[in-house]
Amino acid sequence: MTSIIYASMGVTGFAQVTKQVVNVEGFNYNTSFNQAEANTVRNNVIQSLQATKRIIVVDLQSQSSVSAEAERRKSEAAMGDDRSMADITQLNANYLLKGMLNSISTSKKTGKDFSGKAYTYWDTSLSYTIQIIDPSTGATKSSYNYTSTATSSDGAQKSRNDAIANSSNNMKKFIEEAFPVKGAIVQVADADAKKAKTVYINLGNDQGIQKGQKFVVYAVVDIAGEKSEKEIGTLTAVEVMSATRTLCKVNDGGDVIAGNMASNKEMTIKSRAKKGLFGDL
User: What is the CA radius of gyration of the chain?
Assistant: First the structure.
């Protein structure tokens, strides 16, 4: 067993991982919903984005206060403030996020418990869409449709309220689909027979990386003068070492990863949702 055998010389472009700025608009809804329900789904999205620590979120519903603070910090009188320009960049978003509550339906059902006694319960299904917009062009970058469900024996309204609240359950998948964090392998920590077993990556606390986070490893290849990515392996974070370093277990592709590191071939990594029994989590 050999420790710390390969260090990449070509990862300087990934030395600093820039956080993306996302402006969140108010969510739209049809007559099947009310404002409070739309706010609940929207707040679930905002709180989940903020919890990742990899995204700067600007709530456009409070944009007036944000704009006022930005103007204050631009003024000459505020130039001595340590925070003078710290948050102004939040107004220059990489993406605009829009949401739409599409439909909701509740059905009354009956069943039997273990003793054979009949009971009544209600099933609710909520359909909603989240769009990611390029603010410079207004074009839709990506669109995601999700369903949130709930079952309750305490009445139709309780089932409905729970389905609205359960929209947060889709957020981990949404974040990895829409805003995967990208970085690079910076060093092989442990290898056996030219096969990487553990590696260090240039992502850590600053990007909200936690133990158990999954990554896909890509080799950057040149095809007829155009660069593209080819999946070559997967990683799992086992220990977050610092703001910009995490030790990861190599799940597969260890031989290719070690070879690419030894020959200084360009690779990238991208986070993804965990695979669970019922799909991505």
Answer: 23
